[in-house]
UniProtKB/TrEMBL annotation:
Highest taxon listed in the record's lineage: Bacteria
Keyword annotations of the record: DNA-binding, Transcription, Transcription regulation
InterPro entries the record matches: HTH_HxlR, WH-like_DNA-bd_sf, WH_DNA-bd_sf
UniProt cross-references to PANTHER family, sorted A to Z: TRANSCRIPTIONAL REGULATOR, TRANSCRIPTIONAL REGULATOR, MARR FAMILY
Ranges of residues in domain HTH hxlR-type: 11-109
Keyword Translocase: no
A Pfam family: HxlR
Keyword DNA-binding attributed: yes
Protein name per its UniProtKB record: Winged helix-turn-helix transcriptional regulator
Organism: Paenibacillus terreus
Length: 120
């Protein structure tokens, strides 16, 4: 067993899964993997996410050290998010998850339809 942040894990992969679990975390990380994004742009890119939920997920990703929040001293406030060094290391794995997801659903062509695009 591995004890980390007051929780017990059987394997370090469980820790990684807990870092990215959450309805919007993987989508947020995928958007940030393409470069820094301002908060309102993330809201536009994730219209189904409420402002409260997006804020909460961003705070969790920041506290877990996967993203960096940069506040610019201007009025109105400008807030930008980008991947941290740890987040950058995670990005290729998220891309691999997306690629596997595409391969997986293409194995069941009668059960899939696209309304927008394949990748987050």
């Amino acid at each position: 067993m591995i004890n980390f942040r007051d929780k017990s894990y059987r394997c370090t992969s469980e820790i990684v899964l807990s870092l990215v679990s959450g309805k919007w975390k993987i989508s947020i990380l995928n958007h940030l993997a393409k470069g820094p994004v301002r908060f309102n742009e993330l809201r536009r890119r994730l219209p189904e996410a409420t402002q409260r939920m997006l804020t909460m997920q961003l705070k969790m990703l920041e506290s877990d050290g996967l993203i960096i929040r940069k506040v610019y001293p201007v009025s109105p406030p400008k807030v930008e998010y980008c991947l941290s060094e740890l987040g950058e290391q995670l990005a290729p794995m998220l891309l691999m998850l997306c690629e596997f997801g595409t391969t997986y659903i293409e194995s069941f062509p009668d059960e899939v339809s696209y309304t927008d695009h394949k990748h987050a």
